[in-house]
Amino acid sequence: MAPIKHTDLYPTNQYRLRPMPDLKTILGPLTLKNPTILASGIMDEDAGSMHRMITSGAGAIVTKSIGLDPRPGYPNPTIVETPCGLLNAMGLPNPGITDFTHELDLLRNAPVPIIGSIYGKDPEEFSTLARHMERHHVAAVELNVSCPHAKHYGMEVGMDPQILSNITAAVTHTVHIPVYVKLSPNVTDIVILAQAAADAHADAIVAINTLKGMSIDLDVRRPILANRTGGYSGPAIKPIGVRCVYDISQHVSIPVIGVGGITTGADVLEYLMAGASAVQIGTAVYLRGPTVFSHITQEITDWLTTHHVARLSDLIGAAHP
Amino acid sequence: MNAPRITTVHTGKQETPTVKTLTFKDPSPIVPGQFYMIWIPGVDEIPMSVSYISESIKAITFRRIGDATEALFNLRKGDAIGLRGPYGNGFALKGRRPLFIAGGTGAAMLAPAIELIQRKKRTATVILGAKTKGDLFFERRLSRAGARVLVTTDDGSKGYHGFASDLAKDLLKNASYDAMYTCGPEPMMKTLLAFSGQRVFEASLERYMKCAIGLCGQCCIGEGVRVCADGPIFNGKTLKTIPDFGRFKRDASGGKISFSQAP
Predict the structure, then answer these.
(1) Residue A16 falls within a domain, yes or no?
(2) Residue A200 covered by a domain
(3) Do B2 and A80 touch (CB under 8 A)?
(4) What is the value of pTM for the model shown?
(5) What are the chain B neighbours of A106 within 8 Å (beta carbons)?
(6) Which H/E stretch holds residue A202?
(7) How many whole angstroms separate alpha carbon B132 and alpha carbon B152?
(8) Catalytic, out of A138, A141, A143, A147
(9) What structural domains does chain B harbor?
């Protein structure tokens, strides 16, 4: 009779800690260590701010939307809270591409991908901006064709499939880095726009930008935002974002990045099950503070562990039939 | 909720030809160093540190320097303004023998801190620095509160002839001040930080603000330090790690403006 070995009494696999779930997600040539991306417009106007968001655990960073020239944005009030979300009309403030490239150079060795958000009024402006971004080491560009509150820019060039197609094609022909197209939900059918972008060789669709809204003060009887209308964000818009991602991912073959109301790890999982490969987080930086990325990442890890899911990416599109 | 709540101007008092104090009803608890976002409907919304604190009445004190402060200057009793906040961290006010150094309108936000120190039976020494005699304000208010008030003017028209920081340097040589609190032009505050040694040091910073709730990044300095939410009061230890301090601020577009070029 063979002697009883220690391992027979205590099988090692039963007592060994289960390996940490894998939170990596793949966006074409980019691999993110976790699916949480800082959304454009939040703590991303200078290298220092973006560095803080990297340190607090973001898997990637999208910059403030940058145009050709410096732009001060709208006068205040540029933001107002409502019972279910935030309404903002910043008006695309940014220092212009020339100044901003100095900030990008400071992030050259950033440990996570930096995605350069750009806005323009026509394909030429977008192409010029994308070329500058590429020269200053961004990992991808995101086309802001969906800001709901900037005259001649944003949504105004992103609601027409033909114009959107022209802009996307111009940029994809100009640069070698991936091109993401961020879409507005303020349209009759977002899927048509997603298809137009995909047909023009976009590398990913980002959905959704904010919803156009207004808030009026009863005492002074006027809209609170200086621009009168603004973009509505926060937990209230999450079901709209999830629906858009679900619909888009059924009709295009490129990755979809989900945005809109994500505040917890559960929200991220919901977007992934709807078909998103990664997500962006903005308003939650206000709701939960700048450390929101590490909190959300921990919540995802906990959920995956509890539900015995080894790889987060296995859940992408799980809600589809 | 971070939306403006409407209140009305209670009193308006002109302190100098260009500086005015507006009081208004607001029961929110607030500590010296914290600020409001003041909405002037149809004009702008700007950050303003509190300059007077009682349970039901608060005040702001400001110089007319732009469209928003000009509009505020012209408001009368009963006119509507919107308030968001109070925001920011406020002064910690440690130290037994504090020295306050106010440059220009910096006196406005230091005043409630000085009054709080006096109520706690500590004696504040206050340097009120101004360009000229006619620009001084709050001298009587602070003396009446029991503080030792020293005046400096750049042109020597009253008190010590020179900068507030020059007088501070002299005072710090012979006296046992264990804390410094300052608000004024940033290069002045940077000079004072260099004099602070081991003392408690707190300075109030001013930056162009938009959201004021720590989200948009407009007012960030250094490594994403938000003046609205992490400040506006910073201690000496933190300020020494922020290369922007005393060197540059950013305009509404995010472009950098050096303090040496600033008007």
Answers:
(1) no
(2) yes
(3) yes
(4) 0.93
(5) none
(6) none
(7) 8
(8) A147
(9) 5-87 (2.40.30.10), 98-204 (3.40.50.80)
Tell me, what CATH number does A127's domain have?
A: 3.20.20.70
Per DSSP, the three-state class of A315 is helix
For A38, name the nearest residue in chain B, comparing CA atoms only.
B215
Q: How far apart, in Å, are the Cα atoms of A117 and each of A206, B47, B92? A: 11, 29, 40
**Could you list the residue range(s) of the whole structural domain that residue A204 is in?**
22-315
In the block, residue with structure tokens 């040539």: A29
| Bridge-based pairing state of the strands A60-62 and A36-38 | parallel
The mean of the pLDDT values for chain A is 94
Q: What is the DSSP string of chain B?
A: --S-EEEEEEEEEESSSSEEEEEEE------TT-EEEEEETTTEEEEEE--EE-SSEEEEEEE--SHHHHHHHT--TT-EEEEEEEES-------SSEEEEEETTHHHHHHHHHHHHHHTT---EEEEEESSGGG--SHHHHHHTT-EEEEEETTSSSSEES-HHHHHHHHHHHS---EEEEES-HHHHHHHHHH-TTSEEEEE-----SSSSS-S-TTEETTTEETTTT-SEEEHHHHTT-TTTTTEEE-TTS-EEETTT--
Name the residue among A52, A220, A286 with its Cβ closest to that of B215: A286
In a domain, A8, yes or no: no
CB atoms inside a 10 Å sphere around CB B91: 24
- In chain A, which residues have their Cβ closer than 8 Å to the Cβ of B41? 217, 220, 222
Closest by Cα among A1, A3, A20 to A305 = A20
The tokens for B76 are 């009368």
pLDDT tens per residue across span A100-154: 999 999 999 999 999 999 999 999 999 999 999 999 999 999 999 998 888 888 8
The predicted-structure confidence for B59-103, as pLDDT tens digits, reads as follows 999 999 999 999 999 999 999 999 999 999 999 999 899 999 999
Please give the ipTM for the structure prediction: 0.94
Distance (Å) from the alpha carbon of B236 to chain A's nearest alpha carbon: 19
**Rounded Cα–Cα distance for residues B146 and B143 (Å):** 5
- Look at residue A178 and tell me if it is in a domain: yes
- Judged by CB atoms closer than 8 Å, whether chains meet at B3 and A49 is answered as no
| Residues of chain A below pLDDT 50 | 11, 14
Over residues A256-282, the pLDDT tens digits come to 999 999 999 999 999 999 999 999 999
User: In total, how many domains does chain A have?
Assistant: 1
Nearest CB to A48 within list B3, B43, B224: B224
